[in-house]
Amino acid sequence: MNIENYKLEGERLPIVTYPDPVLSTKALPVTEFTPDLHNLVKNMLFTMYHAPGIGLAAPQVGIGQRIFVLDVGYDREVVTNSAGKEEVRMSNFNPMVLINPVITGTSGTTTYEEGCLSVPGVYEEVKRYESIKVKYQDLNGKEHEMEADDLLSICIQHENDHLEGIVFIERLSNLKKNFYKKKMVKEKVK
């Protein structure tokens, strides 16, 4: 898979929702950088863009490995085509793939209203680090280090939480956390 000249292609994977146990389990490191890994990432990106979302971690598609994809800057617009039907057009892709990420530095704090594809319909303000440094591997196992701030920093922290078995509602007050947990469990039982 070529991440630099990304083309929107792949298969849409089913997204796991809370309280599925895979979302509360710490993901395992990736040790083999095979064509299967490339295919998984391709499908994760396709799923993320179509959800739509700006980040997707492997546990969210039921795979307990330390991988997430993100793109905080692509364009998405709903247009009416010549047949009078609405369709979604996406462009300006800038996908990122972080494998075995480790946050090595943090500074400042910020608050941002987050949502999550695994907790549909819930949006709450979460306190995060404003800037971070993160080490990770790419699709070929090559190591990289980068600094991130603003939305990119928040997205990386949110997705990295998924690899630690933490869903964003775990970061809310006990009152809100318990409310959403009960609500999600109740909806899952229906």
UniProtKB/TrEMBL annotation:
Cofactor(s) the protein needs: Fe(2+)
CDD domains: Pep_deformylase
Binding, Fe cation: C116, H158, H162
SUPFAM superfamilies referenced in this protein's UniProt entry, alphabetically: Peptide deformylase (SSF56420)
Keyword ATP-binding among record annotations: no
InterPro entries: Peptide_deformylase, Peptide_deformylase_sf
Any GO BP: translation
Cofactor note: Binds 1 Fe(2+) ion.
Domain of life: Bacteria
EC id: 3.5.1.88
Reaction catalysis annotation: N-terminal N-formyl-L-methionyl-[peptide] + H2O = N-terminal L-methionyl-[peptide] + formate
Example GO molecular function: peptide deformylase activity
Active site (UniProt): E159
Pfam families, alphabetized: Pep_deformylase (PF01327)
Protein biosynthesis listed as a keyword: yes
Entry keyword set: Hydrolase, Iron, Metal-binding, Protein biosynthesis
HAMAP family given in the database record: Pep_deformylase (MF_00163)
Task of the protein: Removes the formyl group from the N-terminal Met of newly synthesized proteins. Requires at least a dipeptide for an efficient rate of reaction. N-terminal L-methionine is a prerequisite for activity but the enzyme has broad specificity at other positions.
Family: Belongs to the polypeptide deformylase family.
Protein name: Peptide deformylase
Organism: Peredibacter starrii
Gene that encodes the chain: def
